[in-house]
Records
---
Amino acid sequence: MKKLSVLFAAIVMFVSVGMAKAQKIATLDLVSILNAMPEKKKADTDLKAFLDVKEAEIKKKTDAMQAKYKLYTEEAPKKTEAENKSRGDEMQKLQAEAQQMSERAQKDLAEKEKVAYAPIEKKVMEAVGKVAKANSYDYVMDVNSTGLIYKGGPDATAAVKKELNLQ
């Protein structure tokens, strides 16, 4: 019985080593591919412009709020307690509006990124799939991934860039 289990373990080890050697693994630098794509550059530019507009709106709102706060602070000793309380409530409301505006901008940016990058990601994944099939790669790993332990196999970056007509 013991000999049988040792024999079985040896067979499993032999088969798994044989299977591991039969697999072709390639690596690619996904970041360099994306950075070379004109579609990605345009999407980045559009998203940056959108973000700049939203940041300007938020800054305008916070600047107005700070100016009002400064005025209210200077006038506070001359106002009644009821007026100061009303002004304090107004400032809290303005601060909440600014916070909501910032959160909305972040959500809008995330949605725009998703929409802008989806076709780019699809195009790259299709090109990677074509290159992998053409070169019989079983796995293609991104060199920028933290899961990459060893990089000794062929590099598919050039082939994917060629497939996408990039330099």
---
Amino acid sequence: MAIKATIYKAQLQLADMDRHVYADPQTTIARHPSETDERMMIRVLALAMGWPADTSEGTLELAKDMWDTDEPALWHKNFTGDIRHWVDVGQPDDKRLMKACGRSDKVSVWAFQSSTNVWWNNIAGKLVRADKLTVWQVPTEQSQELAKLAQRSMVLQVTVQDGTVWVGDGDRSVEITPVKLVGAD
């Protein structure tokens, strides 16, 4: 019998002063049995950082990348089904990223492993035509601290100012300074 997903709930209180986005998104996370707390929390961070200022064409949602290889970790589909924003977490290969750039208006990657620099150096040259792509690196120590905030039911305050992100749960706070490896936004 297969192990089932573990359900987590996250309520975010987002104050992104850099983009002037203020929202209270809530999400239910079906955590795949092989997914770590660290990866799950990077998905939550990516949700907050990619939350659209204008939600009239839908919002960013968690997808089923761990179950379906044709889906990203998160995506923003408008009401006609067009993919506005494709978000991957980890270290996807160049073919996947080029395909995503062809399918969506915007593609973001949130990498967090200590091997991110090696991965990026190996594929960066293959992505010169990917003008829709933005790649962020979360320093490993910071992503590991973020993982410690994981709980089955979470209320997280996410504040963004001058490129720095603070994520707190009322008792603890983690400072995250994502590094942009490539991209315009």
---
Amino acid sequence: MPKVGMEPIRRKQLIEATQACIGEVGFGATTVQSIAKRAGVSAGIIAHYFGNKMGLLEATMRELLQQLKVELIERLGSSATPRDRINAIIDTNFSKTQTNALAAKTWLAFWSGAMHEPAFAQLQRINKMRLHSNLKYSFKELGLADPDHAAASLSALIDGLWLRGALSPEGIDVDRCVDLCCRHAELLIQAG
């Protein structure tokens, strides 16, 4: 039986080990045993907390999504205008917690799994709706005639640039991606 109070420590340790293993060998080659070895625990601990490898990846993605949410709330709190909010949304989606090499590889494994795993697909729908809704609200505040279209356009650009960067050997060029997204947002605003 695990020691009382160890669960949050073990969960964090296992989530970090999962990202490290995915970063090193990819999700397909990552095993419960390799995660357990990297974390310095038994495979039984993973089964106890997460059930299996898919449960552990789901928990890892929930952690990345929670970090994204917390960062966004923080940045939106200091955003005075709708334009500031749009920039905060862009910056958050390209923040270090979401674009570092291990996070990027974990996101790619998650997106791949979302095509076949209902729990992953549900998390992806929530993430997609959250991004779209936040952008739409800000574009609506700016008086755009079609804030839904503007939000869909900028969301697609954010996701596309993120995906291209994550798949490139150099990784995500955060400054360039943020610049392109901010320019696109400005064009959408000017077009009204």
